[in-house]
From TrEMBL:
GO terms for biological process: tetrahydrofolate metabolic process. Its EC number is 1.5.3.1. InterPro entries: SoxD, SoxD_sf. It is an enzyme of class 1 (oxidoreductase). It comes from the Bacteria. GO terms for molecular function: sarcosine oxidase activity. Gene3D superfamilies: Folate-binding superfamily. It comes from Aurantimonas endophytica. Keywords: Oxidoreductase. This is Sarcosine oxidase subunit delta. The lineage of its organism: Bacteria, Pseudomonadati, Pseudomonadota, Alphaproteobacteria, Hyphomicrobiales.
Length: 109
């Protein structure tokens, strides 16, 4: 079980108390944009990169507040937690640790 740190409660709690709320720092199109490709991409497409990702989480069985977390998508290790509205931390690739596994699936023999 993962332990997640809530920056508002200032405590590490089990992952069962939290809900993932999607990618953090997503730029949304302005209201003046006609519905179409730009709006569809903003609503439905996410980066899903390998390595450090920035996510929104909600402490549903605690304070109920949203916060952001930096997590390594391969190792599942959390690297930083910060309050909603705060600037994204600068996390260098060497701080994230090594990625586990090959970058492409190995061909089957």
């Amino acid at each position: 079980m993962l332990l997640i740190h809530c920056p508002y409660c200032e405590d590490d709690r089990p992952e069962l108390e939290f809900r993932h709320a999607g990618e953090a720092h997503v730029s949304r199109p302005s209201q003046s944009v006609e519905p179409g490709r730009a709006v569809a991409e903003a609503l439905y497409l996410r980066t899903n990169t390998r390595g450090v990702v920035f996510e929104r989480w909600r402490h549903v069985h605690g304070c109920g507040r949203f916060f952001n977390a930096a997590r390594h998508s391969v190792s599942d290790a959390f690297l930083a937690f910060y309050k909603a509205g705060e600037k994204r931390p600068d996390i260098a690739a060497e701080d994230a640790g090594p990625a586990v596994g090959p970058s492409k699936p190995e061909p089957r023999p």
